Amino acid sequence: MGNSTSDLTDTETASELNNTQGGIVLYGLPLSPNTQRVLAVLIEKGLKYEFKKVNFMESEHKSRQYLEGLQPFGLFPVLIDDNGFRIYESRAICRYLEEKYKGKGTELIPTKDLKTRYLFEQAVNIEAFNFDPAASGIIREKFVKKVLGRGEPDESKIAQFREELASKLNVYEKILSKQPYMAGQVYTLADLFHLPCAALLIKMGDGDLIEAKPNVKNWWEKISSRSSWKTVEKMML
After folding, report:
1. In a 3-state reduction of DSSP, which class is residue 27?
2. Alpha-carbon distances of 159 from 134, 138, 153, 206, rounded to whole Å
3. pLDDT digit string, tens, across residues 163-220
4. Which of 34, 46, 183, 208 would bridge 120 by S-S if both were Cys, CB 3.0 to 4.6 A apart?
5. What three-state secondary structure class fits 67?
6. Could you read off the pLDDT of 15-28 as tens digits, one per residue?
7. Quick check: helix, strand or coil at residue 235?
8. pTM as predicted
9. 86 three-class SS
10. DSSP state, 5?
11. How many other C-beta atoms lie within 10 A of the C-beta of residue 67?
12. Which strand (E) or helix (H) includes residue 116?
């Protein structure tokens, strides 16, 4: 797709950070689940983009030029569109890309009718408010603490988050016994949004939560085998 990868430099000014020279630019970190979410959408849509890696270890995302020019909270990812429009928050970026580039690649937000659209909205909220809190809790304890040097994981918290996630996935099992994807019959952002955190859970040894439920397992195997996600996984290496 003619995409490129480069590093964010310390000398770039706030105005230069927003100058995309007519192309899509994504600022982020390959190991960041939120960045991976946006990368998967860019690839599903078949869009050309430049990926600028943020130097996390040097706290580049906390620099004045980053805070003033890209993301005032000092987080990532951030996307600058080809017209200079800047947007952050991964799920918002994904929705923006889908709606702006609707006619390209995979349709990720269904528009067939009102019912279909709001079953999609329901599924997106299931991921955000039922799956993500517990999954992110496990990830914070087992992965983020290690990366940031914040001590050992709290096993009691991990057990609590695992119990919570297992309970939520019991409901997923029922939903997915009636339909192949979270929003119905087709793959959408509601499925894609799960990919980064679920993949990380599996890598950390918590895949049993998914493997234990046949319908959830079948759904996971379908969405994680998509070529777009396989491409993102290669970028993490």
Report:
1. strand
2. 10, 9, 11, 11
3. 999 999 999 999 999 999 999 999 999 999 999 999 999 999 999 999 999 999 999 9
4. 183
5. helix
6. 556 654 679 999 99
7. helix
8. 0.91
9. strand
10. E
11. 14
12. helix 114-126
